[in-house]
Amino acid sequence: xxxxxxxxxxxxxxxxxxxxxxxxxxxxxxxxxxxxxxxxxxxxxxxxxxxxxxxxxxxxxxxxxxxxxxxxxxxxxxxxxxxxxxxxxxxxxxxxxxxxxxxxxxxxxxxxxxxxxxxxxxxxxxxxxxxxxxxxxxxxxxxxxxxxxxxxxxxxxxxxxxxxxxxxxxxxxxxxxxxxxxxxxxxxxxxxxxxxxxxxxxxxxxxxxxxxxxxxxxxxxxxxxxxxxxxxxxxxxxxxxxxxxxxxxxxxxx
Length: 254
What we know:
Layout: E1 7-11, H1 18-25, E2 33-35, H2 53-67, E3 72-77, H3 80-90, E4 95-101, H4 124-133, H5 135-141, H6 153-165, H7 172-185, E5 198-203, H8 209-217, E6 222-226, H9 237-248
Parallel strand pairs: 1-2, 1-3, 3-4, 4-5, 5-6
Helix pairs in contact: 1-6, 2-3, 4-5
Protein backbone atom coordinates (compact mmCIF):
# COMPACT_ATOMS: atom_id res chain seq x y z
CA UNK A 1 0.00 0.00 0.00
CA UNK A 2 1.39 3.39 -0.98
CA UNK A 3 1.84 5.85 1.89
CA UNK A 4 -0.25 9.04 1.82
CA UNK A 5 2.49 10.96 3.66
CA UNK A 6 3.72 13.72 1.33
CA UNK A 7 7.37 13.58 0.32
CA UNK A 8 9.49 16.72 0.54
CA UNK A 9 13.03 17.37 -0.68
CA UNK A 10 14.73 19.87 1.66
CA UNK A 11 17.68 21.67 0.06
CA UNK A 12 19.93 23.25 2.68
CA UNK A 13 21.78 26.54 2.53
CA UNK A 14 25.31 27.91 2.87
CA UNK A 15 27.43 26.34 5.66
CA UNK A 16 24.66 23.76 5.96
CA UNK A 17 24.15 20.06 5.51
CA UNK A 18 21.41 17.55 6.21
CA UNK A 19 21.23 18.72 9.83
CA UNK A 20 20.79 22.38 8.88
CA UNK A 21 18.06 21.45 6.39
CA UNK A 22 16.01 19.79 9.13
CA UNK A 23 16.78 22.61 11.57
CA UNK A 24 15.60 25.23 9.06
CA UNK A 25 12.41 23.34 8.20
CA UNK A 26 11.32 23.12 11.81
CA UNK A 27 7.55 22.62 12.02
CA UNK A 28 7.29 22.43 8.22
CA UNK A 29 8.57 18.87 8.51
CA UNK A 30 5.54 17.79 10.58
CA UNK A 31 3.45 15.18 8.80
CA UNK A 32 5.94 14.91 5.93
CA UNK A 33 8.56 12.43 4.84
CA UNK A 34 11.59 14.70 4.48
CA UNK A 35 14.51 13.81 2.23
CA UNK A 36 17.36 16.07 3.36
CA UNK A 37 20.62 15.19 1.60
CA UNK A 38 23.85 17.04 2.18
CA UNK A 39 24.77 18.75 -1.07
CA UNK A 40 28.16 18.25 -2.73
CA UNK A 41 31.03 18.79 -0.29
CA UNK A 42 28.89 18.98 2.85
CA UNK A 43 28.94 16.57 5.82
CA UNK A 44 30.39 13.51 4.12
CA UNK A 45 28.86 14.10 0.69
CA UNK A 46 31.61 13.80 -1.91
CA UNK A 47 32.72 16.59 -4.24
CA UNK A 48 32.90 15.22 -7.79
CA UNK A 49 35.71 16.48 -10.00
CA UNK A 50 34.65 19.54 -12.01
CA UNK A 51 31.22 19.39 -10.41
CA UNK A 52 28.42 21.60 -11.71
CA UNK A 53 25.07 22.59 -10.27
CA UNK A 54 23.46 20.49 -13.02
CA UNK A 55 25.36 17.51 -11.61
CA UNK A 56 23.92 18.26 -8.17
CA UNK A 57 20.40 18.47 -9.59
CA UNK A 58 20.83 15.14 -11.36
CA UNK A 59 22.19 13.65 -8.12
CA UNK A 60 18.91 14.65 -6.43
CA UNK A 61 17.03 12.83 -9.18
CA UNK A 62 19.21 9.73 -8.80
CA UNK A 63 18.62 9.73 -5.04
CA UNK A 64 14.86 9.89 -5.55
CA UNK A 65 15.11 7.03 -8.04
CA UNK A 66 16.90 4.93 -5.41
CA UNK A 67 14.20 5.78 -2.87
CA UNK A 68 11.42 4.96 -5.30
CA UNK A 69 10.02 8.50 -5.21
CA UNK A 70 8.55 9.96 -8.38
CA UNK A 71 7.24 13.45 -7.66
CA UNK A 72 7.48 15.53 -4.51
CA UNK A 73 7.49 19.02 -3.07
CA UNK A 74 10.77 20.93 -2.83
CA UNK A 75 11.70 23.45 -0.15
CA UNK A 76 14.95 25.31 -0.76
CA UNK A 77 16.72 27.54 1.73
CA UNK A 78 19.20 30.35 0.94
CA UNK A 79 22.03 29.01 -1.28
CA UNK A 80 20.07 25.81 -1.76
CA UNK A 81 17.81 27.74 -4.15
CA UNK A 82 20.36 27.40 -6.95
CA UNK A 83 20.35 23.60 -7.12
CA UNK A 84 16.60 23.53 -6.42
CA UNK A 85 15.95 25.81 -9.42
CA UNK A 86 18.25 23.64 -11.54
CA UNK A 87 16.47 20.48 -10.38
CA UNK A 88 13.10 22.03 -11.24
CA UNK A 89 14.36 23.10 -14.67
CA UNK A 90 16.02 19.77 -15.52
CA UNK A 91 13.40 17.49 -13.95
CA UNK A 92 10.14 19.48 -13.95
CA UNK A 93 8.01 16.34 -14.00
CA UNK A 94 9.28 15.48 -10.50
CA UNK A 95 8.41 18.75 -8.72
CA UNK A 96 4.86 19.33 -7.47
CA UNK A 97 5.55 22.63 -5.71
CA UNK A 98 8.73 24.66 -5.25
CA UNK A 99 9.05 26.87 -2.17
CA UNK A 100 12.15 29.07 -1.94
CA UNK A 101 12.89 30.68 1.43
CA UNK A 102 15.42 33.56 1.54
CA UNK A 103 16.76 32.15 -1.69
CA UNK A 104 19.85 32.99 -3.69
CA UNK A 105 18.46 34.86 -6.69
CA UNK A 106 19.87 36.09 -10.01
CA UNK A 107 21.73 39.39 -9.60
CA UNK A 108 21.43 39.09 -5.83
CA UNK A 109 24.18 39.85 -3.35
CA UNK A 110 25.26 36.21 -3.04
CA UNK A 111 25.18 35.63 -6.80
CA UNK A 112 28.58 37.34 -7.14
CA UNK A 113 31.65 35.25 -6.35
CA UNK A 114 33.62 36.70 -3.41
CA UNK A 115 37.36 37.39 -3.52
CA UNK A 116 39.45 34.21 -3.47
CA UNK A 117 40.79 35.30 -0.09
CA UNK A 118 37.36 34.48 1.34
CA UNK A 119 38.48 30.84 1.38
CA UNK A 120 40.60 31.71 4.42
CA UNK A 121 37.42 32.17 6.46
CA UNK A 122 36.00 28.79 5.46
CA UNK A 123 37.88 27.09 8.32
CA UNK A 124 37.19 26.24 11.94
CA UNK A 125 39.62 28.62 13.64
CA UNK A 126 38.56 31.83 11.79
CA UNK A 127 34.89 30.96 12.29
CA UNK A 128 35.48 30.26 15.99
CA UNK A 129 37.29 33.60 16.36
CA UNK A 130 34.40 35.43 14.70
CA UNK A 131 31.87 33.63 16.86
CA UNK A 132 33.67 34.31 20.14
CA UNK A 133 35.34 37.68 19.60
CA UNK A 134 33.43 39.36 16.78
CA UNK A 135 29.89 38.02 17.11
CA UNK A 136 28.24 41.16 15.61
CA UNK A 137 30.35 40.72 12.47
CA UNK A 138 29.32 37.08 12.18
CA UNK A 139 25.67 37.98 12.72
CA UNK A 140 25.77 40.43 9.81
CA UNK A 141 27.49 37.81 7.66
CA UNK A 142 24.66 35.33 8.22
CA UNK A 143 22.05 37.96 7.40
CA UNK A 144 20.91 39.40 10.73
CA UNK A 145 20.22 43.11 10.06
CA UNK A 146 22.42 45.51 12.00
CA UNK A 147 20.62 46.60 15.16
CA UNK A 148 17.99 43.85 14.93
CA UNK A 149 17.10 42.66 18.47
CA UNK A 150 18.53 39.17 18.87
CA UNK A 151 16.88 38.14 22.11
CA UNK A 152 14.71 35.40 23.56
CA UNK A 153 13.52 33.02 20.81
CA UNK A 154 15.59 34.77 18.16
CA UNK A 155 18.78 34.21 20.15
CA UNK A 156 18.08 30.47 20.28
CA UNK A 157 17.46 30.31 16.53
CA UNK A 158 20.70 32.16 15.80
CA UNK A 159 22.77 30.12 18.26
CA UNK A 160 21.43 26.81 16.95
CA UNK A 161 22.25 27.84 13.40
CA UNK A 162 25.79 28.97 14.25
CA UNK A 163 26.39 25.78 16.24
CA UNK A 164 25.39 23.79 13.14
CA UNK A 165 28.26 25.40 11.18
CA UNK A 166 30.83 23.42 13.17
CA UNK A 167 32.98 21.55 12.46
CA UNK A 168 33.59 23.71 9.41
CA UNK A 169 36.14 21.17 8.15
CA UNK A 170 33.27 18.84 7.20
CA UNK A 171 31.75 21.54 5.01
CA UNK A 172 34.70 23.43 3.53
CA UNK A 173 34.44 21.96 0.03
CA UNK A 174 30.71 22.58 -0.11
CA UNK A 175 31.03 26.16 1.12
CA UNK A 176 33.69 26.91 -1.50
CA UNK A 177 31.55 25.30 -4.21
CA UNK A 178 28.57 27.43 -3.21
CA UNK A 179 30.54 30.67 -3.03
CA UNK A 180 32.53 30.34 -6.25
CA UNK A 181 30.45 28.03 -8.47
CA UNK A 182 26.86 27.42 -7.37
CA UNK A 183 25.68 30.85 -6.16
CA UNK A 184 26.89 32.73 -9.28
CA UNK A 185 25.50 30.00 -11.56
CA UNK A 186 21.92 31.12 -10.81
CA UNK A 187 22.47 34.26 -12.93
CA UNK A 188 22.12 32.24 -16.14
CA UNK A 189 18.95 30.32 -15.28
CA UNK A 190 15.84 30.69 -17.49
CA UNK A 191 13.38 31.11 -14.63
CA UNK A 192 10.67 31.83 -17.21
CA UNK A 193 10.76 28.11 -18.08
CA UNK A 194 9.62 26.92 -14.65
CA UNK A 195 6.26 25.18 -14.98
CA UNK A 196 5.30 24.17 -11.43
CA UNK A 197 3.72 26.40 -8.75
CA UNK A 198 6.46 28.49 -7.13
CA UNK A 199 6.41 30.41 -3.85
CA UNK A 200 9.26 32.68 -2.79
CA UNK A 201 9.52 34.11 0.72
CA UNK A 202 11.97 36.93 1.37
CA UNK A 203 12.44 39.60 4.01
CA UNK A 204 12.39 43.20 2.87
CA UNK A 205 15.45 43.95 5.03
CA UNK A 206 17.36 41.13 3.32
CA UNK A 207 18.25 42.56 -0.13
CA UNK A 208 14.79 42.32 -1.68
CA UNK A 209 15.06 43.69 -5.22
CA UNK A 210 16.54 40.48 -6.63
CA UNK A 211 13.71 38.43 -5.11
CA UNK A 212 11.13 40.73 -6.70
CA UNK A 213 12.79 40.52 -10.12
CA UNK A 214 13.07 36.74 -9.93
CA UNK A 215 9.45 36.27 -8.90
CA UNK A 216 8.40 38.52 -11.77
CA UNK A 217 10.13 36.21 -14.24
CA UNK A 218 8.55 32.98 -12.99
CA UNK A 219 5.11 32.31 -14.50
CA UNK A 220 2.44 32.54 -11.79
CA UNK A 221 4.96 32.75 -8.94
CA UNK A 222 3.88 34.24 -5.65
CA UNK A 223 6.27 36.39 -3.63
CA UNK A 224 5.62 36.81 0.10
CA UNK A 225 7.52 39.83 1.42
CA UNK A 226 8.25 39.79 5.14
CA UNK A 227 8.70 43.27 6.62
CA UNK A 228 11.51 42.51 9.07
CA UNK A 229 13.76 39.68 10.17
CA UNK A 230 16.59 39.57 7.65
CA UNK A 231 17.91 36.48 5.93
CA UNK A 232 16.85 34.22 8.81
CA UNK A 233 13.31 35.66 8.90
CA UNK A 234 13.61 36.19 12.64
CA UNK A 235 10.34 36.96 14.36
CA UNK A 236 8.12 35.93 11.46
CA UNK A 237 8.75 32.21 11.27
CA UNK A 238 5.24 31.24 12.35
CA UNK A 239 3.71 33.31 9.54
CA UNK A 240 6.25 31.94 7.07
CA UNK A 241 5.38 28.41 8.15
CA UNK A 242 1.68 29.04 7.58
CA UNK A 243 2.31 30.50 4.13
CA UNK A 244 4.50 27.60 3.04
CA UNK A 245 2.18 24.96 4.51
CA UNK A 246 -0.84 26.47 2.74
CA UNK A 247 1.09 26.70 -0.53
CA UNK A 248 2.21 23.07 -0.43
CA UNK A 249 -1.38 22.05 0.33
CA UNK A 250 -2.55 23.95 -2.76
CA UNK A 251 -4.61 26.37 -0.73
CA UNK A 252 -3.17 29.59 -2.18
CA UNK A 253 -2.89 32.80 -0.19
CA UNK A 254 -3.97 32.90 3.43
